[in-house]
Fold these 2 entries.
Entry 1:
Amino acid sequence: MSIYYAICDALPFEMLHWNFMKNALLAIIILAPLLGLVSTMIVTGKMSFFSDALGHSAFTGIAIGAICGITAPTWIAVIFSVIFALLFSFVRSRSNHTADTLIGVFSSSAVALGIFIATLDGGSFTKYNKYLIGDILSVTPFEIGMLFIVFLVVFVFWVIASNRLTLCAVHPQLASSRGISVKITQTAFTVTIAVIVTLAISWVGLLILNSLLVLPGALSRNMAKNLKQYHLYSILAAMLSGILGLWISYQLGTSTGAAISLNLAILFAVSFLFRKAR
């Protein structure tokens, strides 16, 4: 981190004179590619509402961890979200209900359980507001290190399984006929989303996290002509919006997550107009 801090100090940007801004920038540089990659498959697999449901389950995990007196409830939330994702995959594979119906069931149940636990014995809900809005300026070097490990694991997983993930999302029957285990592939992806969503919720905020998981892939789909461009544009859009959003939030004193989301929304509008024009 000392080398990174020295590089930031050498740059002519006032906001990088503060260590918390340096940490926030590094977290965005690591988190943005994760969101960009995952977003493409969320959009392709029509799983946008599922990622939102995972955010609700993450909040429930945080509430459970806080009630149990755990100082770092985020890791309890990771475990709870992974269990939630596995349970959803299990029920989905054995139910004749559509995916959106099951997502509605799981999402509403998760948020209701979270609020119920958070307000037990008349407890105040205000201490959980930071998870609704998020604060990436609070990220610590230790959390950045853990995020980087997650990034490496997801990157390796993506290199190995991206083609299979795409085929399972677009045509699961064809994927199965080619010997690909659709259930295992989809379950692995849902667990990946669960981990990323849970880690990001305290920095980005539950209220806008889903937009960061959908907009990069959605705007990239407007412009991309092939799968490689699809992934690349999504990552670049997430990275550009993240860095610009951090700068805007510093200048105007606004929520960083909200600024990033608005940047992505503007890029989506531009990409939509570009798609219509061509």
Entry 2:
Amino acid sequence: MKNHLFLIVFLILWSCETHYLPKPKGYNHIVLPSVSYTQLMGTRPYTFEYSTHAKILKDTSWIAEPNWIHIYYPYFDANVQLTYKPINSDSSVQDYLNDSFRLTGKHQVKATAIDEKILFLKNGNIASISELSGEVPSPFQFHITDSVTHFLRGALYFNMSTKNDSLAPSIEFIKSDLVHLLNTLEWNE
């Protein structure tokens, strides 16, 4: 009887053993919205087409200057900060270019790579874009100027601490919107 009891207890304990298997790597499923654009309205020194999925917000920071705006993407909780500077006798285009490269360079601490490219745009303008890899706060930045009167700089930020490799589809979606913005940019006199 003791042998049978021992065998029953042994079988019960042995049958309750669980085998743990590692779960496969998971990825966020991001459903991207359709692509459509609308014209920027207002009396700014620039105009362009931007995504209909974005909202134009006035920059309300304490350092904001006139004509600084944010293009906010509620679906992605992302923000593109646009800063506009007029080129005049008090400032040179070289000062603004140096500032733009310096601000991009501040990300070198966390960036694994910074890929800088020159874009020759359909509208005849030339823009400089910087794509930053790694866990950086701003994975995409750009600046564009006519070298005489106008200078515009943009930087993309996400309002979350998710790893940028998880945000890759969202970054690519907004990046293509920003390239469209640059292709449709016109300076107002």
